[in-house]
Amino acid sequence: MLINLGLDAVAETVYRGMLAHPGDSLTELGSRLGIPEEDLRGALDKLSELALVRASSDEPSQVHAVNPHLGMEILLARQQAELAAQQQRVEASRAAAARLISEFAHEQSSHSNASVRYLEGVDAIRDYLAALNNQVDEEFLTFAPGGAQTPANMRASRPLNRRLLERGISMRTIYLDSIRRDQPSVEHAEWLTSHGAHVRTAPSLPNRMIICDRREAIIATDSDNTEVGAVAITSPGLISSLCALFESEWHSAQPLGATPAQQPGKLTPQQVTALHLLAQGATDESIAKKLGVSPRTARRIATGLLTHLNARSRFQAGVHAVQEGYLPSSPA
């Protein structure tokens, strides 16, 4: 009962026993309480340290328990002193934190202006998102390219997503179609939907992006390596354009639970996207990153397109794709 005042269970039992039976010797007390002599002496040392016992005035060889009214006042005063010391440490820490923030404020301003702020490295991005998480009021929109999600990203995002969804925030996320073949990523997406989020997939995405309440967006600075850094944008004009881009991609994306039916002789959305990339001269590695698949899978998709189009080369595949209506006859 008195653990919060610094008394453990054994010490409290001994103190209560001494108060109830002041005439007991230590041997009698230990026998009455069923406490071994070593534990009894340890408890007495603790009680002495807390000033709850002292040598008896009548018999110096005996130990006397301090009156409980005085004893509790001693413990409460001790705890109040510890709390005051802790408060002083908190105030000192707060002052030190304020000095640190002030010291590096110019570093942030050198990378930002009124509507754009640069975030360098994945840790800075995660810190910014954690702070932004508490400011979201209504909506959280996400482009999540890169294919299969890494365990680190899923672990880092789940607590933030849970808090948003528990607050009733509308969350919509678009992943790449390729996550449908990665079970951990599918399970993570299904976890999101089970908590109220809406998830769709698309053959490709332009970049990693998050939009909060249609008033702030975070975009990766390098679409090929999204952990390098990001920019946080608040310009209304840019935000409006990014929201329109998201809605366009959302409209054409497939809900997570849906399985797009492929018509015989037709190309899948992923194949169509790969075909456009091939026509632009993209390498297998570039196609792999865009589709969120391995280079080996990208080569297999390209080989399948050549077979489908009855072409012997990528150039010939482009010609046949135009002839069959898969690609426009001239650049848009």
From TrEMBL:
InterPro entries: Sig_transdc_resp-reg_C-effctor, TrmB-like, Tscrpt_reg_LuxR_C, WH-like_DNA-bd_sf. It holds the Pfam family GerE. One of its GO terms (biological process) is regulation of DNA-templated transcription. One of its GO terms (molecular function) is DNA binding. It comes from Streptomyces atratus. Residues 260-325 form the HTH luxR-type domain. This is Helix-turn-helix transcriptional regulator.
